[in-house]
Structure formats: C-alpha cells, structure tokens
C-alpha cells in the first residue's frame, strides 16, 4: 500500500479540484483503460490512483471471481501473464499449462506480485517501453477495495469520477457454479451503484449474459455491450432492447482511407439512431496501427467518426487533447 500513498501526490500534480478537470468536451467520455496502464502495471491500485489524478470520466475494472467468490480486478481468467504465480504456486498449473484465478482464494492471490503484462511462454514484455517487467511491489485487489479508493478520493477531492466494471467470461464462471454477474451487481448496489444516474457503466462481451443482467437480474445500470467481431454489429436493434451503449474494437468503425481522408462503416451512425452511445477500445499512444500519431487517432475517431468516448491506456493524453478542441 505504500506505493499507493506515494502516488497520491500525483493528484495535486495534475490538479485535485473539480474545476481543473482536463477535458471540457463533456459529451466525449474519457475511460481509463485498466487504469493508467500506459504508465504502471495494469489494474493495480497504483495504476488506478495515477489514473484518478489524470481526471478521466471513468476508471475501468475487469472482474474475475476467486475460489471464494471475491471479484478480483484483473484483465483475464488467467494469472500467468501478469503475475509471478508460476514461481509461487507451480503445483496449481492446469493441464493446459495455465494458472486460473478461480483456483485461488483471495488470500492466496494477495501473495502474488503483479508485473507489467508479458508473454508467459517467452517471458517477453508485451509493451516494451512501459513500466519495466518485474520491478516494484504491486498486488492484486478486489472490486470492493478499488471502489473504496475511488469513492474515497471523490469525497476528498470533490470530484465525481465513475467506475466502468466488466465481468469477464461469465460462461466460464457458470461452469463452476459461480454467478459473477449477480455477485458483482450486489456489490455495486451495496456501494450505491444502482441506476443510470450513479456514475457506473457495466459492460460485458457476452450478449446473452448482459441481456440477462437487464431482464432477469433487473439491473437499472447503464449497460454497455462490448463487441469483438463484425457479425455482431448486425444485432444492433436487439442489442438496443437491453443495452445503453456499444463498445466496439475501434477498427470496426474504420472502413478505408481515400487519400488523406478516412471513410467509416455505418456502425456509429446506426448505433446513434438507436440511442446507443459508442465507446470504442483501445486508444494506445504506443500502438497506433493505421495512424501516424495518437492525435490523428483521436481526431479521426472522436470528431470525424463521432464516437462518444473511448478506452485509453493514456487518460492524460486523451484528456489534454479533448481540452484543446
């Protein structure tokens, strides 16, 4: 926890008063993807504290259940690409050579060290120019712990930064008799996140599960349907019957570039006609793809394609860009 407190000075460095919020484009939503993951290991409390200091609108939490049903903030159901689990618990490796969050109690998970994302087969860091792999003393934490950090900072700074949880692989959890959706929603409700007015957007890639969240579990939260494959965009009318927003891979918005001008698919326009907000993933300053600069990427997607917000590993850069528009 010492690292978390040491990072709190960043709140003052970036500005702790509500009126110092970087972005004045209120209709464009800045979502800190796994925290300030461009600077610190993803989904650590330190990355979340740093992200908070950068004044995003929301901070994201990916959720996976532990053996004892605690929602753990981690990107995937596996542990071996962001922790030292292979060294600490070699006996818990499954036949597929992977280590699963669901096989560990919360107490066991807290003994692991978290590091910058790496390839578990080669040991190579995925983003080589980010925080050095194996450095620091970062730990896993629960959804409850992160909510208390964000709500506590909201209280002490006067801001109202929201949360943006995603339940990971609910079908996998159901196989083990675990209802990650209900467990997560109950925790959110206990902390005051119940309706669309409560600064919480709830997301999932599994369309059947997200529809269940709305219709069976009767959640009144702002629901965002994440989509990965182009064919999923054909279901927008049905999607709009239970979801409030759409989270596509940004490449699903791009069509082709003619000269210096980008042309787009109809995805954003079609979603807007149905009343859906569009928050594409992921804006990375160190993984530009088709773009020559991070500024070009943001300009094209925010103002030419007209998306409503975006997930970014660099919330400071996105906020600063929007503040100049």
From TrEMBL:
Domain GP-PDE: residue ranges: 28-322
GO molecular function: glycerophosphodiester phosphodiesterase activity
Catalytic activity: a sn-glycero-3-phosphodiester + H2O = an alcohol + sn-glycerol 3-phosphate + H(+)
Pfam families, A to Z: GDPD
EC number: 3.1.4.46
Keywords: Glycerol metabolism, Hydrolase, Signal
Domain of life (superkingdom): Bacteria
Keyword Nucleotide-binding: no
PROSITE patterns listed in its UniProt record: GP_PDE, PROKAR_LIPOPROTEIN
Gene3D superfamilies tied to this protein: Phosphatidylinositol (PI) phosphodiesterase (3.20.20.190)
Family, as annotated: Belongs to the glycerophosphoryl diester phosphodiesterase family.
Protein's name in the database: glycerophosphodiester phosphodiesterase
């Amino acid at each position: 926890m010492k690292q978390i407190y040491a990072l709190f000075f960043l709140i003052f460095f970036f500005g702790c008063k509500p009126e110092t919020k970087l972005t004045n484009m209120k209709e464009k939503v800045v979502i800190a993807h796994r925290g300030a993951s461009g600077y610190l290991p993803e989904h650590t409390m330190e990355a979340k504290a740093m992200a908070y200091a950068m004044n995003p609108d929301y901070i994201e939490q990916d959720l996976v259940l532990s053996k004892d049903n605690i929602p753990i903030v981690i990107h995937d159901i596996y542990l071996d690409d962001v922790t030292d689990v292979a060294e600490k618990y070699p006996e818990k490796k499954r036949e597929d050579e992977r280590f699963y969050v669901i096989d560990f109690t919360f107490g066991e998970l807290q003994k692991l060290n978290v590091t910058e994302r790496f390839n578990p087969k080669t040991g190579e860091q995925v983003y080589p120019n980010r925080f050095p792999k194996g450095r620091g003393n970062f730990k896993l934490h629960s959804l409850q712990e992160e909510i208390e950090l964000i709500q506590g900072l909201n209280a002490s700074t006067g801001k109202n930064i929201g949360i943006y949880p995603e339940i990971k692989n609910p079908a996998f959890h159901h196989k083990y008799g675990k209802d990650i959706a209900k467990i997560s929603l109950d925790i959110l409700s206990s902390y005051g996140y119940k309706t669309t007015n409560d600064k919480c957007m709830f997301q999932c890639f599994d369309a059947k599960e997200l529809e269940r969240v709305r219709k069976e579990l009767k959640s009144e939260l702002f629901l965002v349907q994440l989509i990965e494959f182009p064919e999923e965009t054909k279901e927008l009318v049905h999607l709009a019957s239970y979801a409030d927003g759409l989270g596509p891979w940004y490449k699903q918005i791009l069509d082709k570039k003619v000269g210096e001008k980008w042309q787009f698919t109809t995805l954003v326009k079609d979603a807007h006609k149905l009343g859906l907000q569009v928050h594409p993933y992921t804006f990375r300053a160190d993984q530009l793809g088709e773009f020559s600069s991070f500024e070009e990427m943001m300009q094209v997607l925010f103002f030419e394609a007209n998306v409503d917000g975006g997930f970014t590993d660099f919330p400071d850069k996105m906020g600063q860009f929007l503040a100049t528009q």
